[in-house]
Amino acid sequence: MRPRVEEVRIQGLGVIDEAVLELSPGFNVVTGETGAGKTMVVTGLGLLFGGRADPSRIRPGADKATIEGTLVIEASGRVSQQVEDIGGEIEDGELIISRTVSAEGRSRAWLGGRTVPVGTLTYLADDLVAVHGQMDQQRLLQPAKQRAALDRYAGDDLVKPLRAYTQAYKRHKQVGALLDELTTRARERAQEADRLRFGLEEIEKVEPKAGEDLDLRGEEERLSHADALRGAATSAHTALLGDPMEASSGAHDVISLLGEARAAVEAVRDYDTQLAGVADRLAEAGYLISDVATDLAAYAESIEADPARLAAVQDRRALLSGLIRKYAEDSAGVLRWAQEASTRLIELEGDDERIDELTREHDELTARLTELAAELTRVRESAAERFGQAVTDELTALAMPHARVTVELTQVADFGPEGVDEVELRMAAHPAAPPLPLNKGASGGELSRVMLAIEVVFAGADPVPTFVFDEVDAGVGGKAAVEIGRRLARLARTAQVIVVTHLPQVAAFADQHLVVEKASDGSVVRSGVLTLNHEGRVRELSRMLAGLEDSELGRAHAEELLGLAAADR
Hints:
This protein has 19 helices and 15 strands. It is an alpha/beta fold. It has a domain at 212-329. The strands form three sheets. The protein has a six-stranded antiparallel β-sheet with strand order 2-1-4-5-6-7. It has a six-stranded mixed β-sheet with strand order 8-12-13-3-14-15, with helices on both faces. Strands 9-10-11 form a three-stranded antiparallel β-sheet. Helix 13 packs across helix 15 (444-458). The radius of gyration is 46 Å and the shape is elongated. The two termini are 21 Å apart. The model has no long low-confidence stretch (mean pLDDT 85). Belongs to the RecN family. Keywords: ATP-binding, Coiled coil, DNA damage, DNA repair, Nucleotide-binding.
């Protein structure tokens, strides 16, 4: 099942107050009197798929225009995946797309119930619809779109070489970028290497150790205050144990006082268990104070003033502080910096070798790309010749018998994502005319027929699911009009086709006929869209043929046209 547009609801756009288009899978035609708003149908479809919003198209008196479309899509197709990726919902294979445009020019879009940027609808449209209105034809006039169109026509012949080219092109770009960085920044990288070498040499001379700065700070503090530290330890020791040079009877040291306290409590401990506990704690305190006093004595013995060592420590700290100030917050950080700098220096010193390797790879990739680009050109040239002739043959049947379409390929100097080919569709309106770009060689009506011819040629090359044409039959009639209808019907065999036309010969080939009706209530014109049955089609075709719905001659001619189209299908 191919995706298709099932229904479109338009409100407040141009002369259309409110209209609903119910569309069939095949060939849908939209007709109506001049000024009824047929073109607004195409405009609405264009807006639905991300077209440019023009506030002047909003119906006078309305604050906004709203277009809502219901699409039938494949549950496992690419469009479904895109909708799921943005969090939209698809119910029973149906996708709802909505777009509003305010009178002030503000535009909002919804996809599967989720608000999305309008650009998302444009992106989605590439897989869903090709709108060929008087303004929308400009897309295929862009060189990139023309190259994509030719590539699509070339089909499988181009797929393999283009895939190989794309892979080589990406690597070629990567290698080129690396070479540019290595060569254009050579001076900066050399300067960086010099700075790293200087830093590493400076660190290597000092040979710092992790945590050394903290250890030296502590040692400097001790050496700088050796006398004070030793005096404090000695005084504390004397306070705890007393001075052995003094008479014991006059001692008031902590140990003696604790002994007296313990002896007093021990004498009566048997009379109260609570006091016995206090005696035990006094004993423990005595042992603890004795240990502390011993440690103080040992500490006092270990502290010696050493001016030479102090000077050495201060010198060493100065060296470490210089490194820390330059490279890190502490000595451990300096060592980390040195390790990282060594790794980076190895990388920088390997630049010359790396440049040689990348240069060789770049040259090989350039040669490879040259071969692949030449293969792409060959395939495109072959496809261009077939494509131009096929479109020319179609134009002959579309009342442009003297027109000739060609596809010109020119090569650019630099490799591009799709090769070196620039593609331009050209048309000569008659044998004596020079081939000109489509936007210069074809009028508006002719351009529509060229687009129709192109899409018919594309019909076998995986076309988009839905085509919309406006004024595709401008300036033609008679037999040419019948051929246009026949070719639109042929296109509708593989895709949904929606056509706005004023030609009964075209309308007769439709699978579904919609008519835009207008009624005037004095000051406001309203338009609606009706789906015609067989009798309604006869009346509408008669009006288009003779200007009178009930003309017997017109009705007979309408029946004849419908019969011809039915037989052709």
